[in-house]
Amino acid sequence: MRTSRDVFLTIGKESYAINTPLENEDIDRIKALINEACGEIVKGAKQEDILMLACLKLAYSLDSVNEKLRKILERIDGDN
Question: CA-CA distance, 60 to 42, in Å (whole number)?
Answer without folding.
Answer: 19
